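FAQ: What does a ligand-bound record look like?

Like this one, built around phosphoric acid mono(formamide)ester:
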Amino acid sequence: MKTESFHGRDFITLLDWSREEIETILDVALDLKRRFALGEPHDHLLRGKTLFMIFYNMSLRTRNSFEAGMTQLGGHAHFLEPGKIYTPALPGKEVAYTTERVSDVARVLSRMGHAIAIRCYGDPVDWVYGAANEMIRNFAYWADIPVLNMECDKYHPFQALADILTVKEKFGGFSGVKFVMSWAYSPSIHKPRAVPQSAIIAATMMGMDVVLAHPKGFELDPEVIKACEENARRYGGSFEVVNDMEEAFRGAHVVYPKSWAAVPMFKPPVGEDSPEKARELFEANKDWICDVEKMNLAHPEAIYMHCLPCDRGFEVTDEVIDKTEGPGWRSVVFDEAENRLHVQKAVMALVMR
Ligand code: CP
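The answer part, i.e. the structure of the complex:
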């Protein structure tokens, strides 16, 4: 296991990391998970170190797993309420922390602690696709300490790590596993693309047979699709895009049905700045729900995944998400949520040590 190259690095997208490095992170996560289960102390790993967490959007899992993780590693996580936002893509919005620019906030925090974690997507950047990712990269440019992406408008890399760790635990590996990332209906049209984009990047990096399913109008970032096609060629799996949820589910080992924003929702040139058109697309596809009938199309031992929070009764029925045990297909959403803790501790221990 080669870990020297981890120290001091940012964690913004899995595309910045090699497959071997991701495998090391998963190994470390499993080791920390074992120690946590046994009650073995590991609070020497980041003793006396500080993580600054800047949340422009709310969170249950991300905030609590980072805070708990830092406590378990012997350090401390500060929860910061940033106020306004700076990004060059948003004229007139020139501050990142009440009255201060990214360049100042990043340099100040670099003198006081050991990493900066940021969550930002959607409304805080007025649905200018990519602006939140740009802001996080701007933090990384100015900071002398690692910058961690807690979900931007392009990527949610820690969620994707938890997702693939869960698949590894359930199937013992990735080869021959059919992984379906599907759009699903929600009454809310305000969902970022970060989870599906990072999930398909991670699944293709691990060499799974990946199917992306969505109705027309919900296409993901073409650069992400291109990266997944390259991953599939390089790592030996496959990648295809279909417009039929039932076709995608047939024989799947992993199904991950989740809502994300329609293309017209974004500001030009990506979209049309039209929540009205986005709403029409959502209402035309209400039958994209994960129910027992669709789960019965999947492999008999299939797992249902969701990053949470989910819209019960819309994205998924209670019967599916609450079937966490018993014979046949099952839901693993709470294992998946728990794994956020272990993968984040692994990355923090590796880059902040
Ligand atoms: N999955 C996830 O990121 O959950 P939170 O929005 O609660 O952090």
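Follow-up question: can I read anything off the structure? Yes, for example: The CA atoms of residues 233 and 239 lie 9 Å apart.
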